[in-house]
Amino acid sequence: MRLPPALVIAALALTALPARAEDGAVTVFAAASLKTALDQIAAEFGAKTGGQVTISYAGSNQLARQIIQGAPADIYLSANARWMDEVENAGLVADGTRQDLLGNRLVLIAHGKANVLNDDQMRDLDLPAMLGDEKLAMALVDAVPAGQYGKAALESLGLWDDVAPHVAQADNVRAALALVATGEAPLGIVYATDAAAEDDVSVIGEFPADSHPPITYPVALTRMAQDPADRAFYDLLSSPQAATIFEAAGFTVLTPPRD
Predict the structure, then answer these.
(1) Which domains does the chain have, with CATH numbers?
(2) Which of 55, 132, 170, 224 is such that its CA lies 20 to 30 A from the CA of 114?
């Protein structure tokens, strides 16, 4: 898929960054929904500084549990506060480094082309009728943030009890996206940024913001971070250059960018 022009421009802007990584290796554990933007940021960081950034993408719950069990992560990017809380409560977040970095939106998607619903129609959504006997793709509704947000939205709209038997749960939000992109499920609930990254799905509508908790992505250095490159990449995530890439991918930047 061709990158949007804004992503290309932002990537070029990253070349202005100082070469601070000193050939260090950075291991990042990140929510799967961050892949499109974070891959771009990591590639440009490596090209400029020589530092190697390895990113493990999965559901935030799975990543948090791996860190708590001793997995060697230098930076953790979660798709909600709960799983960052778990890592912090285990004493594994470096002091003073936790910050709310990004926000996102929750959308209903369809395989291929679909009619777009307005805000009022989304509040009066007849999802059971739209599904019929088909499946609704979602991330794990009791563990993965995208699934938890989706379940909360459906409960708020009075739809969950009727829809629950039709939910096909996936390990993370990108896996749920893939079910819809391949046509295995006609409809799904994902983040707006995921929908924007996949050409074979279309957005039917956005769930009301008040139908689910605010979607927030906290980031932190872990206590395992030692190399100067770890701090350099962490700092880059809240830079103006990274903010441009995140915004082009559809995220809301919550932390004021720092030069």
Answers:
(1) 5-103+215-253 (3.40.190.10), 106-211 (3.40.190.10)
(2) 170
| Contact predicate 39/85, CB 8 Å | no
Phi, psi dihedral angles at 160 (to 5 degrees): -60, -45
pTM of the model: 0.86
Which tokens sit at 10?
A: 């932002």
CA atoms of 70 and 230, how far apart (whole Å): 17
Instruction: Copy the structure tokens of residue 195.
Output: 């929908």
Spatial distance between the Cα atoms of 111 and 181, rounded to a whole number of angstroms = 6
One digit per residue, pLDDT tens: the chain, 259 residues? 344 444 433 443 343 343 333 447 999 999 999 999 999 999 999 999 988 999 999 999 999 999 999 999 999 999 999 999 999 999 999 999 999 999 999 999 999 999 999 999 999 999 999 999 999 999 999 999 999 999 999 999 999 999 999 999 999 999 999 999 999 999 999 999 999 999 999 999 999 999 999 999 999 999 999 899 999 999 999 999 999 999 999 999 998 877 6
Q: From CA 179, how far away is CA 75, in angstroms rounded?
A: 29
